[in-house]
């Protein structure tokens, strides 16, 4: 997308009848019922920009709605800005990965700050993101962009040569990722040159990275006018399967170092308002390596875990922080202290260990455990397990809450291996 495709050539005065007051609308870019409910609870007028398939639902529930296909760009793309401006929209909030640059382009026009769009591209293009971080002095692994299989072969060889591998040694893996997909979609770990042949032309261009062995975790950072309003740290038990909030005491003890790293990231990427979801690796020597950063609702039910642990809606927090006109007083009243969690909230995203499901089994000891809260596991009607995309397609989630991080980790590790689906 090019910013000039959302040209601001229609003013408020031109788009509204004389004397009519235009409401100050928040534009939710994407479709999320929790975000819609959050806007309603905050008593903030809003408009939803979502896939056209949601139009009937929106009309049935009196939701102001603009249908839009985010993966299509055409000469009429400036109509989205015009429609929203005519409705009175002043701020755009991205809910999903594919919406980030659209929100950036819209906010650049709403606020007449073209650089907002350029900053949004940093959060969508993983290659550009890594280069910007490296220029700013942020520690990252070795990375390159690949245009074909030969590029991948050369990178795998060069990385392992640098690790002083000799003939007969097992290669350390490299990671290949699409440049603009969310989370782990399309992510491959390759440690054998033969595995490269599985790549297709549709996988390129892609980002290649060296492997990092440290503990991986994420942060959910609510930022307003460049300042951290609340820093959540999510401890990953197994990436794509399980996590909990707040982190265990060991990781929590690193909060000052993590905060410093986040402040460096905010300054380097010139982040002003909204929520960011960076992922880091903490190495055995205590140093941090930057993985990547997103600027939308995180996966893994993390917003739900934040609300359970801290008692505030992360969706409401995102909306408040995305609006530059939110006051400091509103923010002070909204956020609790970071050390005031009510307990540990965790979840396990259940993936079948079989290819065809005949039944779902829930052990009594799970439901009787004091940390167990609920689950939404289900048996698919056709029985066949869908092909997994990234870390998606899980067959339900189990939610836990308790006062002991060690027990939380034990439960998540144990039930990740349990055969719920037979």
Terminal CA distance reads 46 Å
Q: Report the biggest beta sheet as strand number plus sense, adding barrel if it closes.
A: 8 strands, antiparallel
Mean residue pLDDT:
90
Strand segment tally: 16
Number of helices in the DSSP assignment? 15
Strand numbers in spatial order across the main sheet: 13-12-9-10-11-14-16-15
Assign an overall shape: globular
Q: Helical amount among residues, as a percent range? A: 25-40%
Give me the CATH architecture of the largest domain, please.
2-Layer Sandwich
Structure description:
Helix 5 packs antiparallel against helix 6 (115-122). The chain folds into 3 domains: 3-122, Rossmann fold (3-Layer(aba) Sandwich), CATH 3.40.50; 143-210, Dna Ligase, domain 1; 215-416, D-amino Acid Aminotransferase, Chain A, domain 1, CATH 3.30.470.20. The strands form 3 sheets. Strands 13-12-9-10-11-14-16-15 form an 8-stranded antiparallel beta sheet. It has a 4-stranded parallel beta sheet with strand order 3-2-1-4, with helices on both faces. A 4-stranded antiparallel beta sheet has the order 5-8-6-7, with helices on both faces. It is of the alpha+beta class and 422 residues long. Mean pLDDT is 90; it is low at 1-20. Helix content is 32%, strand content 22%. The radius of gyration is 23 Å and the shape is globular.
